[in-house]
Amino acid sequence: MSAMEGLPGPFAGLTNRELEVLRLLAAGHTVKTIAHRLGRSETSINERLRDARRKTGVGSSRELARILDAQKIWDKKIDLSAEGAASDSALQPATRGAKTSKGLIAMLIAMSAAAAAMMFTLAPSVEQGSTPQAIKISTNKQLPLVGTWSLDVSRIPQVERPRAVTITFRVSKDQKWTTLVEIVAPDGSIQRAESTAALDGVPVAIAGNMGFVDTVALRQPAPNALVMTLGKDGAPLSTRVYTVAADRKSMTETIVWPGKDLPKLETTYFRRID
């Protein structure tokens, strides 16, 4: 089987050499160590990563590497939904496939909850049997997450650092959340994504030019937290927990990436700009 066989559309055009570099990047290598391992120059490695980003439309090399790594784990379209109380925390992918074990479901749910709790204490979630829109607040001013947030790019390794990333959250009168994401790549190109979803964990389509993701599902366990699952072709790619500090000036994004043994956690930081 070739290295590219079975990859979804946006990734099918990647060469074996580009995939090799991306897999080493996903394993934790830097451009320098990849160049040494493959007997190539750092310039050559950066060129392969740049070509891979151009072909797929993903603005970050490390993001692309993680997406490809996640695709290997989730290509069976694992269903993260569960019955009873577990369904209040798990997020469902766009299509149903073979169900994973209860142990893995519980582990993923626990990791997502722990990720948010590491930074801030969350308010209790709604009681079982209440409306699926967990948090109902009368005005947008009362919602800590509403507004526009800018990523602190200085904490991202330079090789994969975008010029800027902003996320805007808005809430309509019917309690649906609109999310706008804009990524400005190092070369100045811009990727945008927009979606409007209820807080019921049901995936909805994403509009825009981010080809590596096509659905989003939302849940809100507390007023200052939002759990977002991104998917592609019916398979979950990552779960992201957004948590706002008490002063409402900073927001933490904890990303749960699927892994062969345990999910991998990554944390990024945003500041309010409006």
Describe this structure in words.
With about 270 residues, the protein is an alpha+beta fold. Helices cover about 25% and strands about 30% of the residues. The chain is built from five helices and eleven strands; from the N terminus they run αααααβββββββββββ. The chain has helices at about 15-25, 30-40, 40-55, 60-75, 100-115, and strands spanning about 145-150, 165-170, 175-185, 190-195, 205, 205-210, 215-220, 225-230, 235-245, 250-255, 265-270. An eleven-stranded antiparallel beta sheet has the order 5-7-8-9-10-11-1-2-3-4-6. β3 (about 175-185) and β4 form a beta hairpin. α1 (about 15-25) crosses α3, α1 (about 15-25) packs across α4 and α2 packs across α3. The chain is globular and about 55 Å long. The chain starts with 15 loop residues before the first helix and ends with a strand. Residues about 1-5, about 75-110 and about 110-140 have low confidence and may be disordered.
Summarize the structure.
By secondary structure, the chain is of the alpha+beta class. 23% of the residues lie in helices and 28% in strands. The protein contains 5 helices and 11 strands.
